[in-house]
Amino acid sequence: MQGAAKDFQAALLHKARWRPWEFAVWLIAFALPLLVPSHSLMVNEIAIVALFAMSLDLILGYTGIVSLGHAAFFGFGAYAAALFAKLVMPDPMVGLVVATVLSAALGAVASVTILRGSDLTRLMVTLGTALLLLELANKLDWLTGGADGLQGVVMGPVLGLFEFDLFGRTAAWYSLSIVLILFLLMRRIVHSPFGATLKAIRDNRLRAMAIGIPVASRLVTIYTLAAAVAGAAGALLAQTTGFASLDVLAFDRSADVLLMLVIGGVGWLYGGIAGALVFKLLQDWLSAVTPQYWMFWIGLILVLLVLVGRDRLFKPWTWFGRRA
Questions:
Q1: Cα–Cα distance between 19 and 150 in angstroms, integer?
Q2: What is the pTM of this model?
Q3: What is the CATH number of domain 22-289?
Q4: d(C-alpha 57, C-alpha 187), whole Å
Q5: What's the CA dihedral at 108, 111, 115, 116 to 10 degrees?
């Protein structure tokens, strides 16, 4: 038993080890605001949606919980950060922490709804949670601005030193820094014994319960963590744009992040990053080329991904061969 435990720990450590290409990816990401300063705002947006996608991957790819209402935590974090900056203090770091903690609290409360029922039940319950928050934000227009959005949000300098500029360079580095910190946290979690129990729950919940894994507490914990990360992503969006609207709670936001994971792959944190990058670049390019039909082309790409497979899509010579 001790030998098996040591082998298991060694396997986890091997998976958690950084690869050379990973260092290159993050170095390039942080260099982009300098290499392409005119696209710093796009870099900032991709970093934020990548963090949002990774938060969904924690519950979808690693735990097997399908959600159509993950935008509830993203939007809640956005409004929390914007309201904190407008009503309390404009310090972005403090506002980020407050929004993350409040989103985690919301996730802990909402986690009760995913402990029972089938996948379809959880799908509808998560969607209902997001729609309830959307309608609440719309009705409380004296606080949230309603359909007009929460305007007049002014952020102070990051760490009291770095002012947000019009070109978005400070915003991009600020978002990338937070994304990297939370990525390291999530990476450590998924490659830990706790992460291994999540995969066991994903693969077979009844068997996980039979071998003594506390399934309910694991689900509550990971759902709360995913909500906190999604709230941090929403807070970054509100802080770097100085605006929060009902769009951050809309169903489209939940659907888009799910599509990003379909493109990039689930059960792999870099899948959220890759999916966000491809989706946002395609959205930007196709909406410029065909403003009215860009969703058609993205839908066509998703159909190809499902029919052909992500790995086979870039190897046309294998399309008509036998599947392994």
A1: 42
A2: 0.87
A3: 1.10.3470
A4: 12
A5: 140
